[in-house]
Amino acid sequence: MTRVSFDPDVLRSFVQGVELGSFAKAAERLNRSTSAVSAQLKRLEEQAGRPLLRKAGRGMALTETGEVMLGYARRLLELNDEAAAAVRGVELEGRVRLGLQEDFGETLLPAVLGRFARAHPKLRIEARIARNAELLHGVNHGKLDLVLAWEGEESSPHVERMARLPMRWIGSAGARTPRLRRRGEALPLVVLDAPCLVRRAAIDALDRAGIAWRIAFTSASLAGTWAAVTAGLGVSVRTPLGLPAGVRALTAKDAGLPALPTLGLALHRAEAEPPAAVARLAEILVGTLSPSLSV
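The structure corresponding to this sequence follows.
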């Protein structure tokens, strides 16, 4: 059997095209022509021996083979980039101060720390898990180098908008979905302490729909919120990212609740031209998070 060696550049074009939803956008992002990316995709399908994409309406969707290839391509690129960074960046030293929303503390941070530490053992990360206002204050006043935060009224001069994610009603994983309140009763809400972007979005949506509500539980931390929702004290609102096992995202229609808007996610840098260590951590952060954002 002839061995097949996949070209990292070809795999990168494939992954970028899937994640951006367009191979024309991938070509632009990678500074290649659309025809060059098309030729790469054709070559990858020839190596795979099966189609990776199929027509879906006006766009394209992954075949089963394409889904398998996407998973392996991401893993191969991660190792490739980690190896390249390790051999070229062994002399990087110092620290990077990273700020994250609680949503990403348990799911994203361990993977990012692991990749960064393997590639740059002499560098250290000082991570801070906090709310939006504190994170943006930190990056705007030189106390944090890199911040991953939800988009709101506050921002920073050096911001990269990553995605817009759907906000969803969140309920206990063990509770029945249909009709979370009885007729005439106010909907019990489990929310973070004010001010909170997501709390405000939930209340505004309920007010517009004419649905009575009450604050059943407030918490200063997301962990406290999830504990209350898991216990069945009420429903909350968040994006589907980083949900713990005790809760689940609900379908608004089935739950008898109004639809919710999307929430922007952005990466903030303290400097327009950040040091090499900060730039490398940003690459790892985006690369680790991208598969979740493309779902």
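The mean pLDDT is 87.
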